[in-house]
Amino acid sequence: SQQGEEDPQALSIQEGENATMNCSYKTSINNLQWYRQNSGRGLVHLILIRSNEREKHSGRLRVTLDTSKKSSSLLITASRAADTASYFCATGMMDSSYKLIFGSGTRLLVRP
Amino acid sequence: ETGVTQTPRHLVMGMTNKKSLKCEQHLGHNAMYWYKQSAKKPLELMFVYSLEERVENNSVPSRFSPECPNSSHLFLHLHTLQPEDSALYLCASSQDTSRETQYFGPGTRLLVL
What we know:
The structure holds 2 protein chains of 2 kinds. By secondary structure, chain A is mainly beta. Chain A is built from no helices and 11 strands. Chain B starts with a strand and ends with a strand.
């Protein structure tokens, strides 16, 4: 089974609400990253959190990492219609110098 | 714009055709990657190049043949593909292969008939 799994698979919220997406993984990691993908386009890096960090902020984004539970969450506050996209977590493995393992993603729909 | 460009953006080919996908990065990075993204499947790493040397061939069929002539350019040569190879092919680059941020191109949407 895959390393990273996002939850939920799909999320629909009203503009202005907060959106929370979760990611679980199985093996030890060096870092965990979140990426965003608009439909049929490339991925855009949002934020990286290292294994010795617990929380990180970037604008309206807040990421937490719990290595004991092997999980991370991405919170988008005050969502906008333009936040509609798929969001992926990717884990940088401890046993590899280059592999990022991506999850299946959460499809977020922000209704105007 | 992420500094990574891919051409063509869309490609339709028959199973007997030969085509190539091109990726170029303008970021001065030393590592480049090919990924395959199929519907309802996680992103699959295909190939990794570091300083123009292939460091990963992730059990990819030989009908996919990568080429990295220099650190700014990456090609994926395609021949005798199957319909199940239809997918979005994404190129990415990073400063080096130390698990840090990857910068993705917009992808090539490939349809194999």
